[in-house]
Amino acid sequence: MDDFDRRFEKSFSMVAFATNRHLVDHMRRLITLLDMDADSAMLWGLVAHLSVAHAMHPGALPSDLLAPDGFMLGEARPVRLADVVQVSGLPKETVRRKLEKLRERGKLGRTEDGRWVALRSGVDATTYEFTRESVKRLLQTARVIENILQHARLD
């Protein structure tokens, strides 16, 4: 057992509490601030991730991938419904229906061949601020967990 595993084992309850508190708070904020159910948020995120995953090379610097406005350089690759269904684990009809609602809200677009893509215009001021605050909270939670692990009693 390495040092991390020992520290994790000795501080499991506190680490689990901090982690779960962060996740529950994040989901609560997402549902209320973005007015979106958890499945729709996951699907929106999956389309966005799958659309740009081809460009995310290990060790790539932000300057290699991002335009001055903070968005990805180049075009995103549209995603097939079947791929979103497979990755999400949700029923096909549920995915199709929720993606269509996200399209109606301006979060996603469709290509002529029926593939899905996250729209830059779907990132409005509320979404931008939500993401900004989420990153700050995630970093704070990481610091809390690191502190717990660092001070775990290993005797």
TrEMBL record:
InterPro entries: WH-like_DNA-bd_sf (IPR036388), WH_DNA-bd_sf (IPR036390). It comes from the Bacteria. This is HTH iclR-type domain-containing protein. It comes from Thauera phenylacetica B4P.
